[in-house]
Every structure is written in C-alpha cells, then in structure tokens.
Write the structure tokens for this entry.
Amino acid sequence: MKKNKGSLMKRLCVFALCVQMTFSLLLTGCGSKYDQVISVTDAAASQVMVIGDYTVTLSDVYLYLIQYIYNYSLTSADLQTTDSASIMNTVIAEMKLEYVEYQLAKQSGITMTEEQINQSYASAEAFTEFFGEDFLNSYGVAKSDVQALFDRQMYITAITEKATQDMTNDYLAQYEEEYADLKFTSVYYALFPSIQYDENGEPITDASGNHVTLTDAELAEQLAKANELKDRAIAGESMEDLVQEYAIEYCSGVEKNYVGAYSAELNELIATLEVGQISDVIETPAGYMVVRMDNKDDQEYRDYMIQSLAYQSAGSLLPTMQENWMNASGVVNVFPDDTVLASIDLTKLCDVMNANNLVISSGENNGSN
C-alpha cells in the first residue's frame, strides 16, 4: 500500500521545479492541475460544529482528512473494506479532543517560547511546501489554516506534557514511599546455555515450540567451560573479555534488578557476593552461570526504575484524563452538521492524493502531524 517516493530532499527539489512550472503556466493562462472542489472562502464559511469559543469549518475538516490520508497512506481501494463513515467519525472525534485540549491550554495560561513558536512556523511551512498551496486551496484550505493547526498542536503538546508530568510527580511520590526499602543490585553474568541457539543468537525450538536442549555430552562441555571461565576470572582476567572469547555475548551481560527478583538459589547466591567477587558456577534453567557482583545497592538504577514506573503509570492514565476533559467540556454533546460533511467525497480525495504522491512512505515524514 505504501509507495517509495524517494528522499525528502529529492521531493523538495521536484517541488521547487513544479512551482516554477506552475508559475510559468499561470503566466500563459493555464489553470491549476487540481479541480477546485470548494473555494477557500466557501469552505471557511461552511460551519461544521462549534466547540467552546471556536467554530470548526469545512476547511478544518478537509485539513484533518488530508493528514489522515497522508499518515495512513489511505487509498480509495481501502475504502471498500473500511467504512468511510468510520473514518469521518474518527477524524471528528480527534478534532473535538484537540480543540478541547487547545482551549484548556490557553485557559491554563500556558505560554510558548520563541523556539516553540519558530518550530510551529517551520512545521507549517514544511507542511504547506510539501502539499502545495495549489492542492490545499483546491480543498478550501488556506495557508493560515495550516499555521493555525500547528499553533494548536503546539499548545496541545504543552498541555499533555504538563498533565503527564504532574501525574508523574504524583506517582513518583507514591512509589518512593512504597519502595523506600527496596534495593537493586547490578551484576555481570556469563551464561553457558543449556539449550541450542541459531547463528542469530535466537533460541531454537522444535515443532511444538519447545526449546531444543543440548545433549548430555554437550552439557558436560558447557559445565567445563563455565568452570574454566570462573577460574580465569578469579585469577584476574576480565569477564567481559572472557565472554567474548567463549562467544557467549548473546546470552550474557549486565543484569539490574531488585533484591529477591530471581529464583531462591540465585537470590541466595547474589546475597552472599561482595562487590567485585566472582561466584562459583551455578546451574539455572537457562544453563551454567557465573556471576560478578558490581553493585549491591544501585541507587542510581533504583531512582531510574521508580521514575520510569511513575512515567509509565502517568502515560497509561492520560487517556482517562483526556476523557475527563472531554466530559467536562460538554463536547460529547456537540454533533457535526451532517449536511456539510455529506459534501465531502473521501474516495476522490484519496485518489487525488495518491495520484500526486501526497501520502507517507515508509520511514518518511514531511511536516505533517
């Protein structure tokens, strides 16, 4: 479904050439290559819905639809399996949320830095340059509409980041109290596995999906190697270098976790090790392991884990907060003018955008949200 349009720089060069050609055509009396679906004036005058202090027009809806088609590389063929009404409902719902968040940000007294303002302007310019004012105007979208969109997005990003940070701080205080006595250790381990791995370091499984274990002879050889590595490490050789020498990097490395996180036997082993001490070989379900204690109370990692946990918890709660914002605003009872929306030919819009390569390609982004 995705098409390779080449690099952004290449497309921008082509775009610049197109601008020159279009200017030349205008001088000779030729018109736009795009059919005029609706004028900028008529689209701006076509009210779709009112959200708080803002009137959403047909210009705005077309702009959001253009983004949606671009982001998902939607084609008219996709509309045979995807309900157009469902897409429209998704876009309208997104618009409602964004207008509510934007107004909340403004009411909250959030201000923008000069850098943020300049970035909004640059993003709007890149968006307009990629799609071209000729195309945007043919669907009633003015350059000022694009700038307004990116200005709103700037405030929306700020309010959601602030809400997430506030919730993170709340969770942080909660987790700091809950895990006040929790300690984390940092160890380096060398593992001689008891199962087979392929050349990419991935476990080999049988037809039933079970790991393929080594033979008794192979296990004995692994145990011998583990004891040899242990002796050499105790004698002063670097475990990291030994892991490379024995080619077991794919199943060895640094392990950080809270005290008591492992099996009873491994927990007991870790508890007895002092910093810098090398353990005896221990048999685990994964194979034969040698452990070096690097930090018995890793405060830095503990702080990182609590911060990460708080941030994840806040992120998972954000949709609930957004739903609360929507309910408090009353926007759930705001319905778009279906007569105005009925004038939109989504299939034709998809065809025009795909015919002119105005859809996203894998790994590319051209200024749109």
Summary: Strands lie at 47-51, 54-57, 184-193, 253-258, 282-284, 287-295. The CA atoms of residues 60 and 145 lie 7 Å apart.
